[in-house]
Amino acid sequence: MFQEVLQTNLQKILNFFGYLMAYFRRNNPLQAFLNQIVGMIKDYLTMNRKLKMAKYRVNYQMYKLNQMEQLIAENNEHVFLRGNKLNLQR
To answer: pLDDT by residue for the chain (90 residues), tens digit each?
Structure first.
């Protein structure tokens, strides 16, 4: 009886290691960790370029907004929208 229990427990342990090895073949955690580290390094190295692009986009949008406000102020018959009063009201 003791030998049967020992044999079944050993078989369960071997089955567990079989499932464990199959899982590691399908989902390699070391490879995922390595890919994550490489991605973080790439993000760190391209951070300055991304910052420059974001600043350019913000400056371009501000330029377009100022152009629109200037066109609205020029084409509007109301005097209070022209000049510095528009900037003060903003």
So the answer is: 888 999 999 999 999 999 999 998 898 888 999 999 999 999 999 999 999 999 999 999 999 999 988 888 777 666 555 555 555 555
Looking at the fold, whether 59 and 90 belong to one and the same domain comes out as yes
Q: Please check whether residues 1 and 29 belong to one and the same domain.
A: yes
- Note whether 10 and 41 are same-domain residues: yes
Pair 39, 65 in one domain: no
Q: Do 68 and 76 form a contact (C-beta atoms < 8 A)?
A: no
The count of structural domains within the chain is: 2
Model confidence pTM above 0.70: no
The tokens for 20 are 């464990």
**H-helix segments, 1-90:** 2-26, 29-45, 47-75, 84-89
